[in-house]
Amino acid sequence: PCVDPLMVTTVALFLGGLCPVLLCFCDQYWAFLIVCVLFGAFLSAWVAVTSPVLVEMCGLDLLTSAFGSLTFIRGCAALLGPPMAGFIVDGTGDLDIAFYISTGLLLTSSVICLLSWIVEKRTRR
Question: How far apart are CA 78 and CA 73, in angstroms?
Answer without folding.
Answer: 9
